[in-house]
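Allow me, if you will, to draw on your knowledge of protein folds for a short while. I have a record of one protein: its chain in single-letter code and its fold written as discrete structure tokens. I remain grateful for any guidance, and I place the record below:
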Amino acid sequence: MAILLRFGHCNRRTGCKMELPGLAFAVWMFICLCASVDSYPSGKVREACASMIPCHGSSPQLSPEHTITVNGTEFKPGDKIEVHLSGPDFEGFFIQARDAEHLDSPAVGSFMLVDRRLSQLLTCGRTKNSAVSHTSKAKKKYIKAYWIAPGDAPKRVQFLATVVKKYKIFWVKIPGPIVSQPNAPSPTTPLHATSKAISTSHPVSYLSKPFNASGCGSMKFCIRNPSNCDPESASCFFLSFQQEKTSVFIEMSGPSEGYLAFALSHDQWMGGDDAYLCINDDHRVHVSTAYLKGRSPPVLDSENALEDVSWRLVDGVLQCSFRRSTRLPAYKGRFNLDASYYIFLADGEASEGGLIYKHHHQPLITNGMYNVTGLPQDIGGSRSPRLIKAHGALMFVAWITTVSIGVIVARFFKPVWSHSFLFGKEMWFQVHRMLMLTTVMLTSISFVLPFIYRGGWSQVTSRFSSLSRLYRDGSDNFSTAYGRF
């Protein structure tokens, strides 16, 4: 409140009053706070119930630093087993119990909490309280909970945990102890008792040399901005596609120390698009697929469909390459590469932890729809569509040229052309009127062009989307990391 009162003033007669700027600031802060509350980390990560994979767009670590322990090796239906998760400081976690012989099966049994400040219960599938997760971003070293064995429990149960140390540093399905019912028969399949966490991505390598434009238009489909630029230069945005039997090899390069991204779209508008991002996180580049929904930030995929991933970051130029299958029916949101799309190419900033921000400027957009697996081409694109360019040009001509000349004619040429006539009227007036009518006509045309380009009024995506984004950008970005887990 002290901050808000600073915008007001006090005197003896009227007391303290808050002036309009202060009131506006107060309303703005209230809206921001209300609109952004739901984006803070809650640990309610039900979307990860099946895979236990955080949607952080990076590869999980393989050698876990954290361990799961229990206070017994046998159980009977209804028994309580103490489950402990411990290790170096971590911020997020997710614990489940599953059939030890079928770790991809749903969660088994239910949990009871010990400390509700650090942990909470989640319902995965039809089993109530079948998982435990964090409640906040507070750092922890130790979590304790009780697992209650159900009446229909399998003969052997294994505890699994996903632990997030930082946004890009996490372990998936860390295997814990296996507990079994008395006199359980020998397992029919090998049990997963390995000490390594589960990997969900392909190896990543470092590019030893930069890309080049050889083969563009003959062997590769290339997009370059500026046209015919060299991807080795510090001012060239470059994207290429090269078909290889049933897959496509993709190269992306550009001046960015944050992220580079391209998207395939059915139209020239953001939303419902298949996106691919190369994100610089502390001088290591993570390559991920994502889905663009409306004008919201991209939703990074938990499972990566990309192979042969490589990257390079030298002198402010970020380059990455990868291969993906032409068709990926098993991956929701991935478009087939043997169809035609508009292609977007964008860059922007990324903060510590790999969180990305809105692109710096208008993305590069191809002028038409292209099939990247069809005839190889070497094309450019535009960061400002032709209709918008025409809108700007007409406005410039109308309000900088014709209006200015019309005013000058009326002000200074009236006495000069007082005895000259054109179509029965004084010449200065006819010229002035012609210029003013031209201004009206150009302004009307330029006003209509954005509507033609957009196809109508722009839709409002959220009541407070802009304000809440302003607030979140200045606050702790942990919410983005764990809000989607």
Remarks:
- The radius of gyration is 30 Å.
